[in-house]
Amino acid sequence: MNVNQSAPPVPPFGQPQPIYPGYHQSSYGGQPGTTAPPTPYGTYNGPVPGYQQTLPQGVSRAPPSSGAPPVSTAQSPCGQAAYGQFGQGDVQNGPSSTVQMQRLPGSQPFGSPLAPVVSQPAVLQPYGPPPTSAQVTAQLAGMQISGAMAPAPPPSGLGYGPPTSLASASGSFPNSGPYGAYPQGQAPSLSQAQSHPGVQPPQRSAPPLASSFTPPASGGPRMPSMTGPLLPGQGFGGPPVSQPNHVSSPPPQALPPGPQMTGPPGPPPPMHSSQQPGYQLQQNGSFGPTRGPQPNFGSPYPGAPTFGSQPGPPQPLPPKRLDPDAIPSPIQVIEDDRNNRGSEPFVTGVRGQVPPLVTTNFLVKDQGNASPRYIRCTSYNIPCTSDMAKQAQVPLAAVIKPLARLPPEEASPYVVDHGESGPLRCNRCKAYMCPFMQFIEGGRRFQCCFCSCINDVPPQYFQHLDHTGKRVDAYDRPELSLGSYEFLATVDYCKNNKFPSPPAFIFMIDVSYNAIRTGLVRLLCEELKSLLDYLPREGGAEESAIRVGFVTYNKVLHFYNVKSSLAQPQMMVVSDVADMFVPLLDGFLVNVNESRAVITSLLDQIPEMFADTRETETVFAPVIQAGMEALKAAECAGKLFLFHTSLPIAEAPGKLKNRDDRKLINTDKEKTLFQPQTGAYQTLAKECVAQGCCVDLFLFPNQYVDVATLSVVPQLTGGSVYKYACFQVENDQERFLSDLRRDVQKVVGFDAVMRVRTSTGIRAVDFFGAFYMSNTTDVELAGLDGDKTVTVEFKHDDRLNEESGALLQCALLYTSCAGQRRLRIHNLALNCCTLLADLYRNCETDTLINYMAKFAYRGVLNSPVKTVRDTLITQCAQILACYRKNCASPSSAGQLILPECMKLLPVYLNCVLKSDVLQPGAEVTTDDRAYVRQLVTSMDVAETNVFFYPRLLPLLIVVKQEDKLEMLFKHFLVEDKSLSGGASYVDFLCHMHKEIRQLLS
Amino acid sequence: MATYLEFIQQNEERDGVRFSWNVWPSSRLEATRMVVPLACLLTPLKERPDLPPVQYEPVLCSRPTCKAVLNPLCQVDYRAKLWACNFCFQRNQFPPAYAGISEVNQPAELMPQFSTIEYVIQRGPQSPLIFLYVVDTCLEEDDLQALKESLQMSLSLLPPDALVGLITFGRMVQVHELSCEGISKSYVFRGTKDLTAKQIQDMLGLSKPAMPMQQARPPQPQEHPFVSSRFLQPIQKIDMNLTDLLGELQRDPWPVTQGKRPLRSTGVALSIAVGLLEGTFPNTGARIMLFTGGPPTQGPGMVVGDELKIPIRSWHDIEKDNARFMKKATKHYEMLANRTAANGHCIDIYACALDQTGLLEMKCCTNLTGGHMVMGDSFNTSLFKQTFQRIFSKDFNGDFRMAFGATLEVKTSRELKIAGAIGPCVSLNVKGPCVSENELGVGGTSQWKICGLDPTSTLGIYFEVVNQHNAPIPQGGRGAIQFVTQYQHSSTQKRIRVTTIARNWADAQSQLRHIEAAFDQEAAAVLMARLGVFRAESEEGPDVLRWLDRQLIRLCQKFGQYNKEDPTSFRLSDSFSLYPQFMFHLRRSPFLQVFNNSPDESSYYRHHFARQDLTQSLIMIQPILYSYSFHGPPEPVLLDSSSILADRILLMDTFFQIVIYLGETIAQWQKARYQDMPEYENFKHLLQAPLDDAQEILQARFPMPRYINTEHGGSQARFLLSKVNPSQTHNNLYAWGQETGAPILTDDVSLQVFMDHLKKLAVSSAC
């Protein structure tokens, strides 16, 4: 695997590259992370196999045989890796955080990330240093493996186990605990694992290819960012050399594994400790350090330990040429970042600081810039000129989550009340008062930091300045000292110049035959009875101000009067779906506590009333229309919760037909599958936005429901779509209820308008997310909750100044769930640079991927999927080529050199390319694709990260044979070659390398 | 003459028929010269306690174009068991069941005293009566409460197996599903959108055989052969539910801003009610009962906008063609009324409001379907409450005084043709040999549909003598007319009432005295008045008056005795003596004069005039005035200002109002409370007497009259003053100071002046 992922460029990190070579060296500093890449190419499958060892990273499974078993066991506990991932938060597939790469196909078994962790750590550490590169490779290997043989998976799984261990090393420790337990049980698994190993061998076959690569590997001095430690020197300097991680010297690795395995168990602990330190160092370097991974890679080698876990693979590895360790391992990167940056709070006082990875748990101290929880940028150092920006091709984007939830340790933004005059703003550009505003003339005036306009300070706001030119009261006023805060809005900021009423929630339940038959309605009504006690409330409010209303429907709508004075609810049927209206005013939207008896009675009766229904047809647009009209009549904003089961074919506006046609895939008409089949929903959505009516859609389809069309309104109103295909109470109840609870309880703002202001030189030009825009600057959101994210792209319109940097101010005007009109302001200052290296050193790959995925997912609406894919690859190649050309130290053309902070770009990008939207598998339905497409549109960075690169959690029990679940599971093994034709990690690296070389030559 | 009066009275009592002429001129030419057409007032369901219905079906003439019913006028050959139809002379075989017939064993229908007979038809399904309440909720709280109570009360008055339904409306229209447990359901419609019957039925889920919700539970035994509708349920089943539902009715919750009228979707509500019944129970007796407290303000059928500053149309607006919604609204309601009539249902309107409610536009709903129209100030008045209660009054048999879906067929002997009918009916457009081409009223047919009728419903039916004068009718020849009314009795039986009458023919040239003596001036006045009112609906008021005057003058010229150009010589025989006076009062009546009446009031008065029987109609034309005093027993007095004396108490009955008026002296005595002193007990009795008499009238009349108790100088005395003949006015001051009554401040002509003119014109040869 010569894949040198190394981020050579970045000096600091650069070192990593070495890793590759390092692989062999593995031990190097292991900056595995960095390294990785290059080699891969060849490898594709072939190599991979060899790599299996690669796995190393994740503790690789390599050595399956030996150590592995144990590991695996451990892992299994974790279980479910695949899906579970989220739960754990960190880690993707594998073992928790760790690494994971393991996803080796086999990985599944792993389940028990933890276990692996343990082992890994051990392994890694040992290897630690050297491994980095190795790890990478290892991972690759893993992937390949999976790809290669079906059977392999299981085993590999075990193998992965090891990876997990790595994880443990990182932060996942917690898991480790559990793992421990697992081990025992897992014993059996182990066995499996072993078997896998066997499988792996085949993969090895691949090796040949790899081998070819290998050569390069050698060449590749992995920049190995690994050097992390080197930071300072980064220069590839000494370390790099060693690192040559690029080199894929799989073979060695392979060997290591075995040992590792063994190692892990016992040793781990110690290892960690040792390693960590190392990592930390790296931290300095930023990523570099983090990369615990590298070490891991290293481990493989030495480690045989790593492999240990993955018995099978390891063996094969040896033969390979590519050095799996040389392939950058996300798991390792994550792990390293966790270790290095998870312990200290992230203080936002300094301009242009790159925050820790989203996978790292860290605290934020707001000292003048918005927390990365609110805003993350693709780069924290912006090229001063648009030429530079064009050259680098690095998109300048910010991912903004204005109402992000904060951990309990962090205070939510202070609310500032500027009284009747309203928030203080710049007279010219209307930017809000913020810490970057310069007070002058003794405090009588201030200069706007965005447009440089000089404004008078209103008398009531006057304050003297201290000797540094700062207002004396700067620290008493949130708007002068914090990055994020809120203003109370005055009536001028309200619709129709009237303070808003508290919002309302309307539950709109499909009661057609399907909904009744599956038990959905009964389940839902039962749940709502208790759920209504948990409506979001503001601050310490005793009860929620939100009023609720209920509608059921099939091809007609049933409204309910649940006025508290009634002895029993009243149902009002509206059959005139062609011309929807709200049949009642009083008693439709009620306070839950006041009307509790009537509501309970209603929810008891709904399932009964429709128990014998034979109505199978439903309407859809009229339902939304009704909800919107109801809010309009009540003169408030609010949210509709729609629970819908089928394609709306009843005669009514918004009626749809089944237009699913798989034959369109890979044709120019494929895009039509993503487009709504009628414009009616856009029109409806516009009306909803004007009313502040947000729509959350829960779908329970048994067949095609045309998600692309049904999701238009949720999408444009800032709502969410949930989909439970073939809903069955027994299987899906838990998932549905937890989604529902979360969705109902989450704090949400309504009737929002977001505006992003920037200092001169750059300008927000494009927006991605779930919202509506009627002009080019204002993002209108009927509803906005703590999960919804808007990605904003910036372009230069002038030269930036290195000294003053660039400022962003995101202002969100919204109605809180108690009906208070507020402005939330987030400010962020970025650095500007004249050197490309500075840019590449301050990028954030996760955020980049977030932007690129959203960009691509929007692209499929208008362009053939193939074009979109090519565009992505080209852009990525350009970014990397620019780096190589301008920042990296000269090296063999055969080497793939990656910037330290982008060393995961290829693997992540490959994941995006392989996602259901861009490369659908046979089992992926049109609805699934449309669903995913809209889902990603409003994801934040942490979500896209885990979405595209699922963590594998080792769990023994999961998959045994080739059954459906297994298929599904494999779907998540993103580093493997996918059934639908997506490239494996290694393959992709090779391909990317080729592209870059073409660009350079 | 006594004999004729008795004859007329007997006939009325037996057959419910009063003819303008009781001896008929035998030629077409002569008949037209009689001025007053040959016509009759028919009360098809006149109460006949002495007439038990027969439990078999009528025997019909076998000629397909005739189908007259066997009657006492037919010639019967008892031996051959044959009978000859007296209309077409077809000889018919008696059916087998009549095998035992003989001179001494006659079926009832052959006996002369059974010129009116009622048959009960046993076959066919019996369908329950249906009452569909359509309730306006845009009412003041008090009004709504009172209305709710009245409606709840009415449930106890309905036959237990009757089907009831409830539609409420305001800004929206709600059709309530009855018989729901635990949750009350209603279907809601926009009040602004006109829907076709098909749409309504689709939306109510009536067009499908099986309904999704509800039902289905236990396989319901077919309660009705009809689509069992969730919206119409037997009262015994949902009595409690409906009572609760009514109890929970709230005022229309939509806010009404200041300066606006509430949005009231009467047009759509009625349309839905009609559509609902049309889809579920066509051709079954059903009443749609509309209770409204204001004008329709939106949607189809709106009569006025919701801006209060723009008042509802007045006669003035209508004359100036300024009533912008009137035509469209009228068209809407006419369309509904026609559909309703086609389905055999009837619509009642109970409009209670201080201002107009759009009766002008909606009148056809009641007029064409035989429904009731009731106008009051508020639902919280005894006028409404008792009137409404009286709808459900029962007859001597304990049956409701209402019948549904009647078809009236008229057959005439060949010397006569049918010109038309005026009353609460619609034409069935059945042409035939006995249908005249000259129409009077609703003509061109021999059959009419009367969807709702009661024992007093009366139609004016007009005929034309077509016999040519060169084809004399043999001496002793008689003309015959048969009225066949098929209807659904309130007991849900199908019944047929057959009335067959005959009158002598007379040659107008040789036997004019006979004809003159057989003139029924009361019937003639009412029949002419109906024609006038019928014309007034479509013609300008003055034209109608001119027409009436000309008819009167011609009549006087024909039957008066006078010397040419000598007014003082003018005399009318007894049988004509009152007729000019009726015409005088008719000219002043609210049926022809719109001055001082709103369009709604005019519609209301005309509605009742066109359906009441002769006695009531005459009261409407010329109110009755009784006088009470110490000078003698109560006596009827002239409806004249000279009757208004200080020491009298007057009781006036105009049908719509009962006015008790205390003369000046009496009023002073009353104020001095003499009636409370034991020694003036006679005064107390005097005061009480008119009250008792008024009560009696109030008890018997439908709709309940407005009861007015006033005195000399009281503001309400205007009701009396506007009715009496202004024999003394400020123009003939000579009467002042004498004890001859009270002067009326008016420019209207008095009866005296009217008669003088009449005489002058009658004797003038210029005409």
Automatic annotation (TrEMBL), chain A:
Start and end residues of each Sec23/Sec24 trunk domain: 500-744
Signal sequence annotation: none
Membrane topology, record value: Peripheral membrane protein
Zinc finger Sec23/Sec24-type domain segment(s): 423-461
Bias (Low complexity) ranges: 41-51
Pfam families, alphabetized: Sec23_BS, Sec23_helical, Sec23_trunk, zf-Sec23_Sec24
Annotated compartments: Cytoplasm, Cytosol; Cytoplasmic vesicle, COPII-coated vesicle membrane; Endoplasmic reticulum membrane
Keyword Cell cycle carried by entry: no
Sequence segments annotated as region (Disordered): 1-328
Residue intervals of the Sec23/Sec24 beta-sandwich domain: 749-832
Cellular component annotations (GO), alphabetically ordered: COPII vesicle coat; cytosol; endoplasmic reticulum exit site; endoplasmic reticulum membrane
Biased composition (Pro residues): 8-19, 249-271
Xref: PANTHER family: PROTEIN TRANSPORT PROTEIN SEC24C (PTHR13803:SF5), SEC24-RELATED PROTEIN (PTHR13803)
Family affiliation: Belongs to the SEC23/SEC24 family. SEC24 subfamily.
Name of protein: Protein transport protein Sec24C
Automatic annotation (TrEMBL), chain B:
Sec23/Sec24 trunk domain boundaries: 127-392
Domain Sec23/Sec24 beta-sandwich residues, every copy: 403-506
Any GO MF annotation of the entry: zinc ion binding
Stated family: Belongs to the SEC23/SEC24 family. SEC23 subfamily.
Protein's recorded name: Protein transport protein SEC23
Organism ancestry: Eukaryota, Metazoa, Chordata, Craniata, Vertebrata
Domain Sec23/Sec24 helical: 520-618
Keywords, in A-Z order: Cytoplasm, Cytoplasmic vesicle, Endoplasmic reticulum, ER-Golgi transport, Membrane, Metal-binding, Protein transport, Transport, Zinc
